[in-house]
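[Discussion] Sanity-checking designs against the backbone

I'm trying to build intuition for which residues belong where. Below is a structure token string of 415 positions. I'd appreciate it if someone posts a full sequence so I can compare it with mine line by line.
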């Protein structure tokens, strides 16, 4: 069994998950830890010391549960300093018999890597979406085909170099190394964890609504084809409530989590008599109680969420202009659990919507089976796919075997 560690650095928390996995697709989570984090804002590093302390705390908790220490991690990134763009590559097949090999595939993907990005940014991922051989497009795997000209369409995810350097320094100061190819965008990790094979194939937008950012990815024809990050998320909802009702942010956060409903329409349709309910909350001065109606609370939350869904709609339109299909929406992340959010999304985006936690692995501790930890679980799946390239099995494969087989071989050959 190989030890895999996922470190998810978020705006409000840092989580560490330790798992043991093998090439047969078996995975067992043996330790996890979570620590509040005050060192980031909207995914950007603002206090390195706080961040290092939070990393150490989360890792220490996970190590204590696992019963041993870890030295290296896969690191998940979500920040407004991440960006994406499409890129194309062209390669002349050099084999004397013009048969395309895995080497040709790697070289055409490397050609796509030459996309013009600013010198202050580094490429995290370059994901092949499809190949063209001598004008015949729509090819998933060109190895073994005969042709002279090989082309590839890719999706490139890049990050600001300074952001990467600063985050990596924090991890290193916590006495941890980052595994080879261990920097992973959250859109990649979350997509592995929450989307079904059917959703990936048909065309689905996924949004991970965290505390500091909303990460969006559009998957179509089994691959990611568009991604974006909005530096507005759950923390801003809390800020809106604190300003509107003039209450401390801590009270606003508790109000959002305990009593938050994201639309007045949800109140009207609820079987419970919530429309006229009033909650008393301690004021900013701490000397009086502020009455907060559930209807007002829902109105404030809805206003900000409508802005978020307007952005989601625009990003989906961008994806569709590139030829991608967006047939449904999958939401994950902590803020996705707000009551009424899926209903509001269906109304505004006019498409099927579901809220999702991680689909895998089996035996996942109950506390990790929440949308809050979907990114961390997806990061484990990514790490396992990079570590193993299993042989095909005659018996029906588990989800892990399918995932490792589908993702692992491509990652090993062309990432």
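Best answer:
Here's mine. Compare freely.
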């Amino acid at each position: 069994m190989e030890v895999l560690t996922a470190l998810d650095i978020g705006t409000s928390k840092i989580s560490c998950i330790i798992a043991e996995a093998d090439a047969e697709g078996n995975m067992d989570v043996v330790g996890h830890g979570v620590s509040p984090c005050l060192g980031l804002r909207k995914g950007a590093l603002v206090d390195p010391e706080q961040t290092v302390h939070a990393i150490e705390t989360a890792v220490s908790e996970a190590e204590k549960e696992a019963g041993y220490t870890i030295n290296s991690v896969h690191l998940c990134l979500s920040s407004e300093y991440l960006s994406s763009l499409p890129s194309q590559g062209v390669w002349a097949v050099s084999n004397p018999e013009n048969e395309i090999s895995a080497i040709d595939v790697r070289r055409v993907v490397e050609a796509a890597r030459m996309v013009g990005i600013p010198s202050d940014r580094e490429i995290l991922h370059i994901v092949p979406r499809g190949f063209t051989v001598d004008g015949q497009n729509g090819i998933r795997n060109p190895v073994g085909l005969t042709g002279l000209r090989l082309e590839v369409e890719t999706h490139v995810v890049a990050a600001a170099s300074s952001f990467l350097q600063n985050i990596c320094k924090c991890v290193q100061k916590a006495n941890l190394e980052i595994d080879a190819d261990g920097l992973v965008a959250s859109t990649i990790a979350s997509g592995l964890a929450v989307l079904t094979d059917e959703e990936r194939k048909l065309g689905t937008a996924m949004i991970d609504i965290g505390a500091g950012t909303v990460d969006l990815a559009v998957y179509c024809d089994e691959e990611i084809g568009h991604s974006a990050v909005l530096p507005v998320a759950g923390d801003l909802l809390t800020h809106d409530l604190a300003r509107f009702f003039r209450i401390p942010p801590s009270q606003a956060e508790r109000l959002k989590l305990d009593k938050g409903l994201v639309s007045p329409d949800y109140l009207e349709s609820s079987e419970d008599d919530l429309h006229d309910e009033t909650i008393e909350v301690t004021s900013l001065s701490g000397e009086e109680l502020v009455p907060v109606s559930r209807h007002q609370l829902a109105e404030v939350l809805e206003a900000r969420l409508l802005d978020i869904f307007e952005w989601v709609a625009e990003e989906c339109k961008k994806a569709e202009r590139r030829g991608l299909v967006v047939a449904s929406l999958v939401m994950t992340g902590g803020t996705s659990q707000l009551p009424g959010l899926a209903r509001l999304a269906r109304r505004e985006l006019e498409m099927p919507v579901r809220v999702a936690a991680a689909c895998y692995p089996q035996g996942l501790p109950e506390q990790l089976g929440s949308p809050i930890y979907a990114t961390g679980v997806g990061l484990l799946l990514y790490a396992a796919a990079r570590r193993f390239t299993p042989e095909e099995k005659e018996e029906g494969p588990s989800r892990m075997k399918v995932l490792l087989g589908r993702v692992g071989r491509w990652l090993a050959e062309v990432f």
